[in-house]
């Protein structure tokens, strides 16, 4: 591929369709962008739709750092039915009449699941247990436990409560919710745990991710739209939106891109990854403050 028509380095914000795995989207994007160098920041379950951040070419180096950012979701939780997968993809394992659950009880249950909590991920998930994917162990009928891990639920709100009757005749409640949470949180595990706490079981019936870090749904494009016109957020713009910015002169730029650990201004202490820009506004390197000096995380320039 010539320099003139080379795929630009940057992020592609995809509005993932339901039924696609995150890897399916990456495979599709490799064809659209005509490059093998495509990766994603944070997976989305096949059932879920919404913001999936892809990196193309040099931007793949950003992805590991973007995956740690806060995420926002809109979803529907059904109280009254438990499923094998904690979402609508799995078979129903238990049903219970949820029509008597009050809004006060729902709010109390949600309060318990807000803030810094310990969460056991869903068994049908991509987490590795002793090197084997959890979903493979579950499908093979193994009896195993996944250790709880800390996650942060910054916000968990209920917008609507709708009483309805499920296909099997069970009176259920559908909650329309929004969740703002740390990376690694399973929204279907929240649905499962809320239902368990209320004594009627619960699972997730719909999920749409509306934000990953600073990247929102309004800047996302469907795969069909990207097939028509590949919209790439330039590397510098993507980094400036996601990380604190440190502008340096040409001399410091040369030293930092060669891995020299320069002194960092105090304002960057303890903030995590920092994007370093040269005099022309070009993204040069991602660094992190370590003992007052810049430790290189990824070099771009």
UniProtKB/TrEMBL annotation:
Alphabetical UniProt keywords: Isomerase, tRNA processing
Domain tRNA pseudouridylate synthase B C-terminal, residue spans: 188-230
First-level EC class: isomerase
Reactions the enzyme catalyzes: uridine(55) in tRNA = pseudouridine(55) in tRNA
GO BP term, pick one: mRNA pseudouridine synthesis
Domain tRNA pseudouridine synthase II TruB subfamily 2 C-terminal: start-end pairs: 243-300
Active site: 45 (nucleophile)
Keyword Isomerase carried by entry: yes
An example Gene Ontology molecular-function term: RNA binding
Start and end residues of each Pseudouridine synthase II N-terminal domain: 31-187
Cross-referenced InterPro entries: PsdUridine_synth_cat_dom_sf, PsdUridine_synth_N, PUA-like_sf, PUA_sf, tRNA_psdUridine_synth_fam2_C, tRNA_psdUridine_synth_TruB, TruB_C
Enzyme Commission number(s) from the entry: 5.4.99.25
Gene3D superfamilies, per database record: Pseudouridine synthase, PUA domain
Family to which the UniProt record says this protein belongs: Belongs to the pseudouridine synthase TruB family. Type 1 subfamily.
Alphabetical list of PANTHER family matching this protein: PSEUDOURIDYLATE SYNTHASE TRUB1, TRNA-PSEUDOURIDINE SYNTHASE
Role: Responsible for synthesis of pseudouridine from uracil-55 in the psi GC loop of transfer RNAs.
Protein name: tRNA pseudouridine synthase B
Protein's gene: truB
